[in-house]
Write a structure and sequence with these properties.
The protein is mainly alpha-helical and 136 residues long. The chain is 61% helix and 3% strand. A hairpin with a 5-residue loop joins strand 1 and strand 2.
Length: 136
Amino acid sequence: MRTAELADVAGVRPSTIRFYERQGLLPPPERDANGYRCWTTADARRVSFLRNGQLLGFTLSELGLFLSREGGPVSGADVDEAIARKSAQLDVLIEGLQHTRAALAVIAGRHCAEPKCPLVETVAGLDVTALDDPMH
C-alpha cells in the first residue's frame, strides 16, 4: 500500500508516516517502479502501535525501545522499567489533577459581584505550589 493508504488504515496523516520513517521507527519500505513507497500490513500494525502508544502517554523514544525489543538487544527488564516509570509519572499527574480539582471545589459557587469578585480573591490567595505541573 502507498503512504496515503497506510495513513488511512492506521488513522494518521501521511506526514506522520514520513516522520516515523525519518526517525527510524519504521523500516525503509520497498519501492515500486515509480519510486513510490510500498508499505505492508506489518507496517500498518507498527504505525498503529506508535499512534496508540502515544495516546497512552509514551514518548516516541520509549516506543522505539519497545519496538527494538522485538528484534534487538533490549531486555524485558528494560521494557518493564519503562512501563513502571510511565505508571509512576501518571500517579504524579493524577495527584496533581486531584489537587487542582480540590482547589476548584473550594472556589466553586463563589459568584462574582461588584465591586469585588470572590473568585478572583480566592484564586489570588491560592497556594499554587500544590497546582504546579507535577511532571516538571
